[in-house]
Each structure stands twice: as C-alpha cells, then as structure tokens.
Amino acid sequence: MALPTLSMEEVAKHNKKDDLWMIVDGMAYDVTRYVDKHPGGALPMENMAGKDCTDVFANYHAAKVYKNMLPCYYVGEVSDYKVYPHVADFRRVRQELLRRGLFETDMRFYWKMASWNALLFFGALYMSLGGASTAARMGGAAVMGIFWQQLAGIGHDLGHSGVTHVFWKDHLIGSAMASLMGLSMCWWKRNHNTHHIVCNSVEHDPDIQHMPLIAVTPRVFAKPYWSTYYTKWVSMDGAAKFLVGNQHFIFYPMMAVARFNLYVQSWIQLLSSEQLHYRKVEICAMLVYFCWVVKLATSMPTWLEMLSWLLTSHAVAGILHVQIVISHWAMETYHGHAYNDETDDWYITQLKTTMNVDTFPMLDFVHIGLQFQIEHHLYPRLPRHNLRKAKDLVMDVCKKHDI
C-alpha cells in the first residue's frame, strides 16, 4: 500500500511526546514509540516534535542510524519540504569536512591531553599531600581545580561521541571518568543535548534557567513561564527581584561554587526513575570520587585549611562555568521553539545564540574547545582539534549570505 504524501503543516500537528513525528530529508517519520529509548534523552526529541530535523539529525547521528533505524518509522513524503540556499551551503560545508577527514579523531591529541591531565592530577596530589606550607597546599588545590576544568573538556568531547565516535565506548569512558570528575555523564547528556537543541530558549534551555539568582535575559520578566526541563513554573517573586537586582555582585561568587550544584544535579539524575545508560557504573564512580576528595580535603592539618582547600579547588574549577556562559548569555534569546522557517532554522538559530572567543592557537588547550562554540554547535560531533579548521569554511558561508 502506498504511503500518503504529507505537508509540513500536517506533520507539525504531531508535536507531543505521545504523538511525535519529525522530518528528515523531506521524509516524515513517526518516532513516538522510540522517544523513551533515545540515547540522547527524550527531551531533545520532544523539543523537535513536528519539525524539520534534517540538520539536527545529520549532525548528531552516525550514518548507520539512517540505514538501520529510520526506515522502520517512515510514514510518508513531505510535499512542500524546502531547502534554503544558506542551508544548502552549510550542508556542503559538512560534506567538505567529511571529505577532508576532519570528523575523524587524531588519537595522538587525546594521548597528549591524557598526559597533561595526569600531570595536573598527580601534581595536585603531591602539592596537597606533601606541601610543607599552607601556600603549597592551597597551590595544590588550585592545580586540582585546573585539572577538573581541563578534564571537563575531555568529558564534553566524550559526551558528544566525539572521541571514538562509538556511542557506548564514549559514554562508558565518560561514565567511568566520573571517578575523577565527580559529574554524571547521564546528567550531562540530558542537560547538554537539550541545551544544544533549544539553545537560549527561555522556556526550554536549562543553561539559561538560573532564577531566582540570575536572569540571563529581560524576557524572563514578561510573565511566569513553565520550564520544560525542570518541570516547574518560574516567576519573579520578591526574593528573585532582590537577587536579580544584585546579580552583578552574585555572578562570580556563584561561578565559584557552581560545581557543588552540579554534584547535586548528578545525583538527582542517577537516583531518578528515568532510563539511563551505565547507571551502576556512574554511581560507583561517583562514590569513588567523593571518597578520595573527602579523604584529600580532610588530610589538611586544620578545619580552616580543609574548607579553604575545597573552596579554592572548586573556585578555580569555576573558570569552566565562566567559559560556558560567555558564549551564550550575551547572545539572542527567544520564547518557545525555533526551527519554524528560514529565519530560525538549525544553522541560523545556532549562529544567533552562540559566540566564539578569539584566542591564539597555542592557547586552544586552555579553552578546551569552548572558544569555537559556533562551529561546535553547528557540527557537534566534529573533534575538538579540528574546530579551528572548520571556522574558515563557516565564515565563508556567513559572508556569502550576510549572516
């Protein structure tokens, strides 16, 4: 029996978790029964329900997914599917990156990163445990903070399957790495994948939802809104007005202790009823992490030094949080969902909501790839060490279309 021809408008009606269709390359797919099985979490799929997912799909999935999984969910062809000129050019950039082999990982880069991180970790242990003075031990705490910041770069790459490019390998390595980093890969994927899909959406992006402490955009003042990530209403009460009114004082202290909140978020995720990969591995790894961190902190000669060690190490690691927010918080925000027409398709939305940080190539390791947020958001599976090479190709398309 021939399958029906559908319109974009008809597909857009199927935009709920229990009735979820999407469009890939002009073909409509009913993926309702797959939502809860999605390795990247249900939220990214829910946020793309009823929309053209061609570029999201291409930039997040291996070719085998097209061949082995999509056909099972096919429901018909979309008659009025369009490819805008700038979209066609960005797709050609992706093909050029593939042709040059830039989606392939040079494992020598990660061996160097592993050696560098090992030097930081053991250096931090040596200074913290063997330091003859308070200054030396606090120096060890600072080096530990740098280690956590640098290790987060590798964790970020693994979370995007950007190291081995095999989902289960990268996820398992990332889950085991929680024993050194203290953060859940399962939590990170749920949070970060959602952020990428709905970057800077007031209602949907968890990375700009920090009320009542900080308001990233005046749009949060307009009316109360429902956070689809945290499943709660957010509004401006008296406490929020006071804190937001002083957020220019709160910002850096909050960044200094933000890591403690990520511990809490990680445990909430791991202890939830949501279907997760390698839950037991992560719980064991997290327990190992807290055992050695507590043991190291309590090895300090006084309670004051113990607290100072914890605060110093976490404050230095807070550099990571500053690096993350400067690439998004100064950019455009919006209500609801993007991906409606040529003014907010995948590429335009990512360009509107992300910003690069100019830096010398020799300092790329300091920024752990976060300085190329535009290229990373456009092509999230592109290995970190190739992002600089992609920048010129992206710039050419932006200049051509005056973006």
Q: Which descriptors would you attach to this protein?
A:
alpha+beta, 55% helix, 5-stranded mixed sheet, 403 residues, 19 helices, 9 strands, two-stranded antiparallel sheet
Overall description:
This protein is of the alpha+beta class and 403 residues long. The chain has helices spanning 8-12, 42-47, 54-60, 63-68, 85-99, 107-130, 134-159, 167-176, 178-181, 185-197, 238-245, 247-270, 279-297, 303-317, 319-326, 346-353, 364-367, 373-378, 387-400, and strands at residues 5-6, 15-16, 19-24, 27-30, 74-78, 209-210, 214-215, 225-227, 232-234. Strands 1-5-4-3-2 form a five-stranded mixed beta sheet. Helix 7 packs parallel to helix 14, helix 10 crosses helix 12 (247-270) and helix 12 (247-270) packs across helix 14. The mean pLDDT is 94.
Q: Given the structure, what is the number of helices?
A: 19
Q: Which structural class is indicated by helix and strand composition?
A: alpha+beta
Gyration radius, rounded = 22 Å
Fraction of residues in helix: 55-70%
Largest sheet, described in full? 5 strands, mixed
What general outline do the C-alpha atoms trace? globular
Largest sheet, order of strands side by side?
1-5-4-3-2
Q: Helices and strands in order, then pairings?
A:
Blueprint: E1 5-6, H1 8-12, E2 15-16, E3 19-24, E4 27-30, H2 42-47, H3 54-60, H4 63-68, E5 74-78, H5 85-99, H6 107-130, H7 134-159, H8 167-176, H9 178-181, H10 185-197, E6 209-210, E7 214-215, E8 225-227, E9 232-234, H11 238-245, H12 247-270, H13 279-297, H14 303-317, H15 319-326, H16 346-353, H17 364-367, H18 373-378, H19 387-400
Parallel strand pairs: 1-5
Antiparallel strand pairs: 2-3, 3-4, 4-5, 6-7, 8-9
Helix pairs in contact: 5-19, 6-7, 7-8, 7-14, 10-12, 12-14
